[in-house]
Amino acid sequence: MALPSTRRIFERDTYIVREGEPPNNCNLILRGFAFRQKLVSNGARQIISLHIPGEFVDLQNILFDVADDSVQSLGRSEVAVVPKAALTDLFAANPNIRRAAWLDTLVDASVFREWVVNLGRRDARGRIAHLLCELMARLKASGLMDSPVCDFPLTQEQIADATGLTPVHTNRTLQMLRRDGLINLSSSKLTILDWKKLADIGDFNDRYLHHAG
């Protein structure tokens, strides 16, 4: 059963999903990256997840009447926009695909739990180290990289919003990780020079990503 979809290009910071709007589609990233976010009343932003090629950014919205968070493009991205009705029919007709979609949302929930721990119980170095390790682990597991270097489109401000730090504190922490010979971050490319030490600092264990699932 072929899924009807429309391919769309989203430029940097363009909204793919807007909080408060009815979601008529679900969005699959084909190229590029995206982030999910929530805004509070004073305008401050919390980035609550990152998304890479091959991932639906809003599969949970297939059962919701209104989007409860927003998704924006990180850099330029290409997205397959799939009507919710088509996905509903596909899941109804294919139990294995329905199970895979359910698993996808459960892994999302597992990642959210880990991000709560990261924000609440790790120091600045640990938070950023964990974020960097997670992104690289997910890209490797998806077959999107085969070297210690990966695309890293986040700005320092976005890293700060993902880790609950100020931009100044984020800058200092990144400089510290560079000076310690753990990472190189330049021209939107991330190189992890010492995976073991960085993973130790971030208390990183990829069990919560459930790659074997």
UniProtKB/TrEMBL annotation:
GO MF terms, alphabetically ordered: DNA binding
UniProt keyword Hydrolase, yes or no: no
Any one biological process term the GO annotation gives: regulation of DNA-templated transcription
PROSITE patterns: HTH_CRP_2 (PS51063)
Keyword flag DNA-binding: yes
SMART domains: HTH_CRP
Chain ranges of the HTH crp-type domain: 122-196
Protein origin, superkingdom: Bacteria
InterPro entries per the UniProt record, alphabetical: cNMP-bd_dom, cNMP-bd_dom_sf, HTH_CRP, RmlC-like_jellyroll, WH-like_DNA-bd_sf, WH_DNA-bd_sf
Keywords assigned by UniProt, alphabetized: DNA-binding, Transcription, Transcription regulation
Name recorded for this polypeptide: Crp/Fnr family transcriptional regulator
